[in-house]
Amino acid sequence: MNRRSFLRAGVSAGSFWILRGGSLGGPTAPSNQLNIAMIGVWGRALAHYDSLNSENIVALCDINENHLAEAAKKYPRAKTYVDWRKCLEQKDLDAIICCTADHTHAHIANWAMHRGLHVYMEKPLANSVEEARVVRATYLKNRDRLATQVGTQRHAHPNFNRLREMIHDGVIGELRAAWAWGNRQIRRQGYLPAQGEPPPWLHWDLWLGPSPYHPYNPGYFSGGPGANCLQWNMYWDFGSGQVGDMGSHTMDIVWNVIDGTHPVSAEATGEPFNPEVTPVELTATFELPKNDWRPAITVQWCQGGHMPKTPKDWVDLNKIGHGAMFKGTQGIVVADFTSRMVIPVGDRADLTYYRPRPPEKLLPEPGHFQREWIDACKGDKRTSCNFDYAGLMIEMMLLGLVAYRVGRKINYDGETGVVTNIPEANALLRRTYRDGWPLQP
Ligand SMILES: NC(=O)c1ccc[n+]([C@@H]2O[C@H](COP(=O)([O-])OP(=O)(O)OC[C@H]3O[C@@H](n4cnc5c(N)ncnc54)[C@H](O)[C@@H]3O)[C@@H](O)[C@H]2O)c1
């Protein structure tokens, strides 16, 4: 019996909890602590240590043996690995939390779910359209028994739900368009040249994992904890630049409001294409079909200095480093991660059409973001950034990079995952992997 059928059988969420091992008790009972593997134990992973105090860390995996040794001091009983494929074979695991480099995320998420493991995956969930689709499909097949969360922890801020409520309740009339933007600019020339041998404690070939071979250079590891991703995420084989980096966080402000599905088209412009480095400057525009509460809308992602047009000369959107904007028939909402501003526009924008919901109808807060996932692993709750929600969003964003590379508007069939008007674009939906690193285990 899985956790959801167990709960459906008459035990309400919160009163009893069940893990894969089948033990019962309160959520913090020792028998109901999750057995978690941490894959990638340094950098961003350090931000997860505190929220994992209530659980069992039974496995640690890192391609850097120095990082592994540091983590093992905190979790001395955990088994250690340098290869995540071996780590996932450990028998007593319930869940993994993964903070590795982007080009391994989809593989690790997909392999872990195939082994029946709950997954918390740092953003971005995928590095290609195909990866986003495969990971989401695996999750959808297992959603009744697996809890997943993408690490877009800003989502837990109340501003996200307040924006959703006010736009659904009509503060700007009928929604027509939405934008998200980010101004981070990291310029790279090309892959770093070969420089020395990898030190004995660093497994360069395992770091490359599924990606094509590139020579070692210590520059890929020269960043501080939690910021080292900026040393490699601009390169096509290791990341998707700001699309997957701050784009994962910032488009989430929009995605939480619009109930988006697959776009029917994507179009993008930016700086000249560099086959080694993802673009700094980019504007990607998507057409999303109508749904049951709004008409078809356009959604735009702007980065690296590209910006939406300001709705009023006295609003300087450039003052918001990472922000979002919604345009409706009666006005505009401008937001960042933690605040929002409504601008009624036009002589008839008297707000009489706006019916804010009463306090008791406000959406519940997700609470602590990592905790939301841990609770979902044990109970029947759904996480707010599960692989269905986040998978669709990153699929759209990555399709923007495909449109950028093609240089023309592409029409997209979201059911089949096919670009219908430019056949050669379909090759850009996927990455090729080195032997031994298939996306499907
Ligand atoms: N949610 C957030 O706010 C946030 C903030 C920073 C980073 N991140 C994300 O976290 C991830 C890691 O970023 P970072 O700056 O910590 O990077 P990093 O390069 O420092 O890597 C983190 C750790 O993972 C290890 N690692 C890398 N590849 C591995 C592999 N294949 N197997 C096992 N271990 C591996 C590294 O050795 C390191 O110890 C990135 O995907 C990044 O986008 C998220």
Give the biggest sheet.
9 strands, mixed
DSSP, total strands: 15
Average residue pLDDT? 93
CATH class bucket of the domain at 157-186 and 241-363 and 388-429: Alpha Beta
Low-confidence stretches: 1-24
Biggest sheet, strands in spatial order?
A: 13-12-11-7-10-9-8-14-15
Distance linking N and C termini: 25 Å
Helical residue percent? 10-25%
Assign the CATH superfamily of the domain at 157-186 and 241-363 and 388-429.
Dihydrodipicolinate Reductase, domain 2
Radius of gyration: 22 Å
Q: How big a fraction of the residues is strand?
A: 15-25%
CATH topology type of the domain at 157-186 and 241-363 and 388-429: Dihydrodipicolinate Reductase, domain 2
Overview of the molecule:
- By secondary structure, the protein is of the alpha/beta class.
- It has a domain at 157-186 and 241-363 and 388-429: Dihydrodipicolinate Reductase, domain 2, CATH 3.30.360.
- 23% of the residues lie in helices and 17% in strands.
- It has 10 helices and 15 strands.
- It has helices at 3-8, 65-74, 84-87, 105-114, 129-142, 158-168, 204-208, 246-258, 369-378, 387-406, and strands spanning 35-39, 56-61, 79-81, 95-98, 118-121, 148-150, 175-182, 265-270, 282-288, 297-303, 322-328, 331-335, 340-344, 410-413, 418-419.
- The chain has a 9-stranded mixed sheet, with helices on one face. A 6-stranded parallel sheet has the order 3-2-1-4-5-6, with helices on both faces.
- A hairpin with a 2-residue loop joins strand 11 and strand 12.
- Helix 6 packs parallel to helix 8.
- The protein is globular.
- Residues 1-24 have low confidence and may be disordered.
